[in-house]
Amino acid sequence: MQRFCTLGFVLGLILMVFGLTYALPIATSLYFDDGMADHFVRGMSLNIGLGSVLAGLTMRFRGDIKTRDGYLLVASFWILMSAAATLPLLWGIPGLSFTDAFFETVSGFTTTGATILIGLDALAPSLNLWRHEMVWIGGLGIIVLAVAILPLLGIGGMQLYKAEIAGPIKDSKITPRITETARLLWLVYAGITLACIASLKMAGMSWFDAICHAFSAMGLGGFSTHDASVGYYDSPAIELVLIVFMLISAMNFALHYQAVHLGSLMPYKQDAEVLPMLALVAFSIWLCSWYIWDNGVYSTFLESLRHVAFNLVSIATDCGFASVDYDKWPPFVPWWMLYLSCITCCTGSTGGGIKMFRTLLLWKQASREMFSILHPRAINPIRIGDMPIPNKIIFAVLAFIFMYFISVVVLTFSLIFSGLDAISALSAILACINNAGPGLNQVGPATNYQSLGDFQTWICSAAMLLGRLEIITLIVLFTPTFWRK
Amino acid sequence: MQRFCTLGFVLGLILMVFGLTYALPIATSLYFDDGMADHFVRGMSLNIGLGSVLAGLTMRFRGDIKTRDGYLLVASFWILMSAAATLPLLWGIPGLSFTDAFFETVSGFTTTGATILIGLDALAPSLNLWRHEMVWIGGLGIIVLAVAILPLLGIGGMQLYKAEIAGPIKDSKITPRITETARLLWLVYAGITLACIASLKMAGMSWFDAICHAFSAMGLGGFSTHDASVGYYDSPAIELVLIVFMLISAMNFALHYQAVHLGSLMPYKQDAEVLPMLALVAFSIWLCSWYIWDNGVYSTFLESLRHVAFNLVSIATDCGFASVDYDKWPPFVPWWMLYLSCITCCTGSTGGGIKMFRTLLLWKQASREMFSILHPRAINPIRIGDMPIPNKIIFAVLAFIFMYFISVVVLTFSLIFSGLDAISALSAILACINNAGPGLNQVGPATNYQSLGDFQTWICSAAMLLGRLEIITLIVLFTPTFWRK
Ligand SMILES: [K+]
Ligand SMILES: [K+]
């Protein structure tokens, strides 16, 4: 019982703090006079009011947060925030169902950036800002989750990353560590966001669009203020700025902190993930540009290069902006992009998927097994960078990848069962579980998730949450063991 | 050098013995007077002649077969037999390319049963028998491979199955064990084949068709003497007989030997794989029958049940007969069937894919990891049946599954790269690597692999060999470690 009071107290506090974030859309609404301010004020009051009541009722009975409560806290956090954030959308967009509104807010907070809304260009500016702010807040949450919380919870090999920033804390209480880490990362994240806003403005966006798209790029969300996404601007300069900031967001933010702290690029060079990621992306851009140019999609190699570079980086980093309808390209390229979305992003970034470090670990483990078939007695420990990796971590990583794969299969079959074609189903699930955004065919870059039925929408929402919470954090809640005292 | 002479000697002997198998198509050709006897006599002479020369030249320099030579021997065996067996096809079918002929013989010896030939009903009976005989020989080879050879080579956790029939042999020489095991299994295999031929004859097939289809069912090959496959007969009795024998062939033949030896059904009951396999198949038949009946594909549930039962068992056991064009059913069912083809068959059967025991092991390992996240200090060994499974085996199984998955991704992307659509590409690779046979769309049950280009045909041949040699046996040959002294 104390456990749930503790949980209630923390969630109450979070709701109250979250209430403050409504200030930005309220200001926006007043500035643009789009008539939405009332909705946001009501939402703000509800959040702060409910949060205070919840925190007040549970305050006396609360205890310390234990590691094990972390799973429930993390899952409740994302689901509660998404549910609360639907209110302004429901009030501001007549006819929007809760299913669709919840999909949109989950998509925001998980930084998936898949949308069910059509007519974004005509949407009230405050609602558009609200969508993008969710991505930005979600992105910050994800970084803190990856750098400070998951290592303590022991999810999918993230134990390796214990003590990355704030130093080892032997206590099983998680509050002090999270607070300190969050403070440092918040500063780095906000700083890079400001640089991105300024760069986008200089590249030709309006201030409003620059802020929205910077929020989207930093959280690797991929929401846009235009139905045509970044294709609306048809501007190589904007695309180049976004490519740079998407790649920055796909790196570990703990590295950015170290780089700023030391005033040096060495942290990037020494990192095990950054160079493989950049090499993979560069090779893929070259290969795919050549392929679609060779297939006659664009008349010049340079044009191929421009469009492949932007859209491939966007999907590989799990951002999800689109500048052209790449679903019309020969299928090799969009499928390769979806494949990259599974493996490219670094740990501690705002991207999703399996992550580069797990991919590298899996690769090394497989090579070790091939070697040990021929030399059964050889002992051959695995290293990532300079770290030797214990078997315990390797098992945890393999379990993560297996659960990821099982989830993809089960969710894809659910969509096919519900009547969706196989390509839309598989691509939708990959795009959602990797928090990338656009899939192919019926959920491709030129359309969106609007055409899905209610059941299908809920499956996709579940996929986004599963992916964002690194699969196991969520699945563990459904095991009997978790609920046994 | 001695190593290659030993290899040459064994392959020479195998070619000579293989030459004897041409007697059956020669007899068939003479009986039906189809004019192909000359081709088979020439093929027989070439095989025995070349085999004698190879064995004669290398005899003086040969040594014992070492475990490590096993990888090369197994791979050379399947490739050499397939290459040799193309001759009668090339001589007997004017205009057939070597690429296509090799695909057909690899498809036979790996018991995949995918075909590039059209007009099977009009094909010379001896050529049709030849195709089916390859499946039958391949099936026997696979059983011996799984029960006697792979456990010694330590592939994908098969070490567990050491000493299943012939008792532990501590020597690293593999010849005595293989000889004894092969003799016992051959008797069981031949006995069940005779029962299958008799049952098919009683169900209404001609003797010739009964022999061909029994060969196909025992090897889980799926070749047929008719373009319409088993749909040609439109006979529930024949379908029922085939369902029974396909399921028998999908079980471990070491179990059949034990059951005959003990005169009891206990071995099946005690086995870790048989009951899960039957339960999975039964559940899937019920689910899919209901689904396509609910979707209005057939007017009665019984008709749904009949067609689902036959085609689902056929694909799940990696046999590959078809009685209707199930690619026209709502996509959930054919995809579910393809999914089953990956996991359903038992170790030591003539089927392909990951195999039930690895699926069970993977599932238990994942559950153990979920448990150990919440109880990090608990020690919780995995058991299959009564056997505790050491971590070494678990790593080997996980490595197998990872290499399987990597192979599917790489080969599927090769086909998509070559211009095939995603559904045909993925389904073709799954159907080939699982040695199931028909895929979907362009390579679906109503068509075949004829329409593929040369590059695509070679990729599919590679997939069949990879799957049949349990992935790692083949991949290990491409590692530098293997070729280092
Ligand atoms: K995204
Ligand atoms: K087959």
General description of the model:
Chains A, B: Belongs to the TrkH potassium transport family. With 485 residues, chain A is an all-alpha fold. Chain A has one domain (97-485). Chain A is built from 20 helices and two strands. The first copy, chain A, has helices spanning 2-20, 23-32, 37-59, 69-92, 98-109, 125-153, 175-202, 207-218, 236-249, 253-262, 266-270, 274-294, 301-316, 332-343, 356-374, 391-417, 422-433, 454-468, 472-475, 480-483, and strands spanning 382-384, 387-389. Chain A has a two-stranded antiparallel ribbon. The termini of chain A are close together. At the A-B interface, helix 14, helix 15 and helix 16 of A face helix 14, helix 15 and helix 16 of B. The structure holds potassium ion (K) (2 copies). Residues 111-113, 220-222, 318-320, 435-437 of chain A line the site of one potassium ion (K). One potassium ion binds at residues 111-113, 220-222, 318-320, 435-437 of chain A.
